[in-house]
From TrEMBL:
Pfam families: Aldedh. The lineage of its organism: Bacteria, Pseudomonadati, Pseudomonadota, Gammaproteobacteria, Pseudomonadales. Coiled coil: none annotated. Keywords: Oxidoreductase. Residues 1-228 form the Aldehyde dehydrogenase domain. GO terms for molecular function: succinate-semialdehyde dehydrogenase (NAD+) activity. This is Aldehyde dehydrogenase family protein. The keyword Oxidoreductase applies. The keyword NADP does not apply. PROSITE patterns: ALDEHYDE_DEHYDR_CYS. InterPro entries: Ald_DH/histidinol_DH, Ald_DH_C, Ald_DH_CS_CYS, Ald_DH_N, Aldehyde_DH_dom, GABD/Sad-like.
Length: 248
């Protein structure tokens, strides 16, 4: 299971599985193993029998052994396309049921007759909720020519108002990214895209101070040939690429 919603992602899979009379073995992302053991303790304290909900802390080889184990009846993964390809292939080789929820590059399309107040509000939430670290987040803005300038102006201004800070504060909307390497990779992608001719509308750099924070970033004039292009980035990032569309 992934790190972006380390409690909810597990519970939404574990609860229906357990209610159907099955057991559940969790292999969590390595940077949120504390959450895995927290849930294991919660299930034990709730009175679940030993072995009904279990946690394993293994590397890729251990995952492969678990999938091949005859006691495992089915496999599910929420994560990257690359991880999904590997897990799906192994589950298929073992003739086991497999459910994959992978990363995407979802478009957010705004036509000339759209209610811009509602569209901008939805676009900001759709991109930047959970610091943009959501697999189903809107990754690209495709705007019809008739409203692109006004929509972009409003979108940038609303994004500029997002508060960066302590994730435990109720006023914070943009918290730290999950890992420093993800932030550094994002920054490299943004800088490469700007060098390729994209226009920086907002942000575009690491936030000052401690922690792996990245400023909410909006890129304009993005083309399919650039580093930040449709389908090119599979991780979850607080970054938005926007481009205009000539027609519907």
């Amino acid at each position: 299971m992934p790190w972006n919603f380390p409690i909810w992602q597990v519970l939404r899979g574990a609860i229906p599985t357990l209610l159907a009379g099955n057991t559940y073995v969790l292999k969590h992302a390595p940077n949120v193993m504390g959450c895995a053991y927290l849930m294991l303790d919660a299930f034990k304290r709730a009175g679940f029998p030993e072995g009904v909900f279990e946690v394993i802390n293994v590397a890729a080889e251990g995952v492969s052994k678990a999938i091949a184990d005859p006691r495992i009846a089915a496999v599910t993964l929420t994560g990257s396309v690359r991880a999904g390809q590997a897990i799906g292939a192994q589950a298929g080789a073992a003739l086991k049921k497999c459910v994959l929820e992978l990363g995407g590059s979802d478009p957010f399309i705004v036509l000339n007759d759209a209610d811009l107040d509602q569209a901008v509000k939805a676009a900001v939430i759709g991109r930047f909720q959970n610091t943009g670290q959501v697999c189903a987040a809107a990754k690209r803005l495709i705007i019809e020519q008739g409203v692109v300038e006004e929509f972009t102006r409003r979108f940038v201004e609303q994004t500029r108002q997002l508060v960066i800070g302590d994730p435990l504060s109720g006023e914070t909307y943009i918290g730290p990214m999950a890992r420093f390497d993800l932030r550094d990779e994002l920054d490299a992608q943004v800088q490469d895209t700007l060098a390729e001719g994209a226009k920086l509308l907002l942000g575009g750099k690491k936030a000052d101070g401690q922690g792996n924070y990245y400023e909410p970033t909006v890129l304009g004039d993005v083309t399919d040939q650039m580093t930040v292009r449709p389908g090119s980035i599979d991780h979850y990032r607080p970054r938005r690429a926007a481009r205009s569309g000539a027609g519907q």
